[in-house]
Amino acid sequence: MTKKLYHGAAYYPELWNEETIEEDIKLMVEAGINVVRMGEFAWSIMEKEEGVIDLSFFVNMIEKLHDHGIETVMCTPTPTPPIWLSHHHPERLHVDENGQVMSHGSRQHICTNNTYFRKRAAIITEEIAKAVGHLPGVIGWQLDNEFKCHVSECMCETCKSLWHSWLEEKYGTIDALNEAWGTHVWSQYYHSFEQIPQPISTPFLHNSALKTMYQLFSYEKIAEFSDEQAAIVRQHSQAPITHNSTTFFHVDNERLYKHLDFASFDTYAERSNFASYLFNCDLWRNFKSGKDYWVMETSPSHSASLESYAAPHANGYLKAEAVASYALGGEAFCYWLWRQQRTGCEQPHGSVISAWGKPTVGFENVKEVDAARKELEPVITTTRPAQAEVAITYSDRARAFLKTEPHRDLDYRSLIIPFYERILSAGYHRDLIPEGAKLEGYKLLFTPIVHYLSHDYLQQATKFVEEGGVWIVGPLTGGRTENHTIHTDAALGKLEQLAGVETLYTYPMEGTDSYGEFMGVKASLSLWSSVFQPTAGKAVGTIKGGNSDGAAFMTEHKVGKGKIVMLGSLPSGESGDLLLKKCVDHYAKEADIQLKTDVSRGTIVAPRIRKGEIIWVIVNMDGNGGTVSIPDGGKDRFTGEELTKGQYEVGPFQYKVIVFPMNKDEELGNNQLVDSVQQ
């Protein structure tokens, strides 16, 4: 099949009459929509009564769309089980941490681990796959919709039984669990797995091991449900399978995508938070390495529900989002939703077409996206994103640890996205990578806010350093064991020996009048911090004032051909930004990072490659316009203008594509990517 870029929308034809559907298809063609997603909330249409399944409407709908050049991503409808599945069956419903049983309605009200739910979910999924899996219009599958978006861990009796089995499989014996968890604290010792509670409400806080392990158990069970659905679909369809997730939901995305074919995400970031949008692009590109990701949902104008609404996009921003995504490795850019819903809890949500059939405030912006898609398609489909040299580890497991131990309401996303933004704004091409990702091709690795470093991760990172990489570790990294307990051999366990440090103290730095100094830059220190004394290597960042005056908050230690840098505390405020920028630039230079662009804040460069050429896709994201420095002679892909070395302006939400000849060293370093483009 010829490579193409997709421009799509979520569509719910089951909610509209035939005349409206015909009108919608006509408007889709006008707006340049070439793919729709459907079916994820339609279980009650497909199976109005238990065992009476009729999929003819969706078969006809897929064929009708295909006749107009619009392809379909078909969904399994499991997020919204019908009334016959939940009525009079409270044992099938989700139970929250307060013991409250969900009622029927909204979505995700049933426990996905319930045996009967799984049985009926398997039946409806297989019937859908048999009915539409062979249709040429079906180019992909989405399982369910936004796993664990509105609910987190379930506390029903089914989950309780599965929890006990999971623990027994993990620990083997109850004695091993008691030892690992340290259950003699507050007389929490257990005599059998069946005695171990779920982390429902208690007078104070649960044991950290119990709380974190239950989250990891829940992660695994929702991924198993996804695996089960995918296996059923694959019996009847060869189209690739995905799930639309985000970093908000209570899932381990790395585990979730392990057995899926491509990754996709939903995002409703406002323009003021464009870094969060780019964060998703840089992360989802790496959940299925070498595969293009999809933006499965974003609003054409604004997000909203009955209770809230966000600011509408400025004209031009939607185009900037789409171009950035395509350039960073996206294959599709899709909206939620096509036609505004006239009923339900999301009636005010932005859409392409209003409930009364007229273009909305976002319609012209959608047409702008389509024009950009068509202009970019020859470039994007013949190139691949360049290999980044800078990587930042992302961990949903770490998110679980921080949910258990949030200190002052700290949240993983609110910590790691600003950390990422500092590297983004400095102009470095970067990858966000899951914990299990390979490190080949990288020169500089950041591991912030990962409480537990697994044996496998430590091995990989050590090898990376020995072969010449620079590894910056922290803050809030390495201080907990696999079971969310504190190390007893050293504050940071085996990491200390590798990094050539002894951790003298760990404590919160806020309010201690402490500040850190690195290469002449001073900044206040924050978060739960580690104070170091080098046992090898040297101190490079010193604490001034407070409780640990004269000790180190940053150290470096040569290991093999590379080095390990420990960052024990997070510099804060504007001066903290300057200190971290100094740190990033200094070690990027030491690591010989080449893929750095001199670009103003709010504008990005997405480098792509093909045989003999490097292509820069430049996009202004903040609407203020910006500048970019061209290091060598290049050519504007669209105007044909020959560009010389120098600084060039980029208008508000404007994008440019600049083509540079690739030198032999660059081509050698990207051989594998060049080969993949040729294929």
Automatic annotation (TrEMBL):
Documented EC number(s): 3.2.1.23
InterPro entries: Beta_galactosidase_Trimer (IPR013738), Class_I_gatase-like (IPR029062), GH (IPR017853), Glyco_hydro_42 (IPR003476), Glyco_hydro_42_N (IPR013529)
Top EC class for this record: hydrolase
Domain Beta-galactosidase trimerisation: 388-593
Residue span, Glycoside hydrolase family 42 N-terminal domain: 11-375
UniProt catalytic activity: Hydrolysis of terminal non-reducing beta-D-galactose residues in beta-D-galactosides
Assigned keywords, A-Z: Glycosidase, Hydrolase, Metal-binding, Zinc
Similarity remark: Belongs to the glycosyl hydrolase 42 family.
Protein name in UniProt: Beta-galactosidase
Record organism: Metabacillus halosaccharovorans
